[in-house]
Amino acid sequence: MPIKKGTKRKAAASRKDEASTSTSTAAVTQPEENKEVENPAPKTKRARASKAEAEPEFFDDQRELEDLWKQIFPVGTEWDQLDLLSEYNWNFSNLEEAFEEGGVLHGKKVYLFSCTEPQLLFYNGQSKVTCIPVVVAIVSPFPPSDKIGINSVQRESEEIVDMKRMKMDWVPYIPLAQRGSSVERLKSQIFILTCGQRRAGLKFLTEDRVKKFEYCLPYFYHPFKEDETEQSTIVDIMYPIEPKPVVCEFDWELDDLEDFTNDLVVAEELSEDQKDAFKEFVKERVREGKKANREAREKRKKAREELSQEKVAAFENMRFYKFYPVATPDSPDVSQVKSAFINRYYGKAHQVL
Questions:
Q1: Residue 107 Ramachandran class (φ > 0 left, ψ -120 to 50 alpha, else beta)
Q2: For the chain, the helix, strand and coil percentages under 3-state DSSP, each to the nearest 5
Q3: What local confidence, expressed as pLDDT, does residue 140 receive?
Q4: How many helices (H) and strands (E) does the chain have?
Q5: Which segments in the chain show pLDDT lower than 70?
Q6: CB 87 within 8 A of CB 127
Q7: What are phi and psi of 336, to 5 degrees?
């Protein structure tokens, strides 16, 4: 019996509705295990967390005093030599360890300045003059000095000036872990010598002013120890004559002036007709030298008399430590060139590390 067209359409529609209903029901009754496959995020997150936790073991922790030596101004170093300090990966872990429990600087108030010492060193198969950074630590309850000495073989006389004239000062050092804190709220025990003069501003200074920075030496005056210059009996002589001046040293205790002058005539450094004038020149320099020694002793005596008992004790207990870089594969070995001598004002360190 033939089917009517309308009946075919109804049958097709009926089958379409059944298929739709079946699909909808399957979606609603989907097994739980299929849901877990569709949502694997928790497993992925755990895997990423595990990977992230393993990464830090490839990096060294930043040490609290890691940049301490770099923050200190290297006094007396020529401006064009400053870049050479980063030529090698110098390591001052010995300075850092000195502040740890059991170290020579642990729990003490310390003032630090830096300088450089040019030395011939052997490294990577070749020898060359290397600018070695050195750090000097002064254990003291107060700043060792607020002065800077300016002297060199090119300068006629020595100058002792306030640090601030050379834009230098003692400032608190802030350890890396406390860099976000206010300086006023920190009770710092470490003070470093800094310089506010920027290299970019050197072009606006006179040549003499620029050179003064390179001739600077940290100054220290100890009221209980006489300086070697106060005991010296030697005067420098620069007698101005043509074609060239007579340059020499005269010791008023060991040298006889008449014989000394005759020797210069024999050596043709001084003419016969200049003898008397030269001897008067030397005598005047000797008088100046003796006067300077006398005034220095009187100044030291007065300074001792004016000191309080606390100051006296502080000077007696003051200690100097000199730190050189430790040996590493990234830098030359400086162990053979270490010296206890700091400079002509500080003399020698109590200990070299």
A1: left
A2: 40, 20, 35
A3: 93
A4: 10, 13
A5: 1-63, 152-157, 176-188, 226-231
A6: no
A7: -85, -5
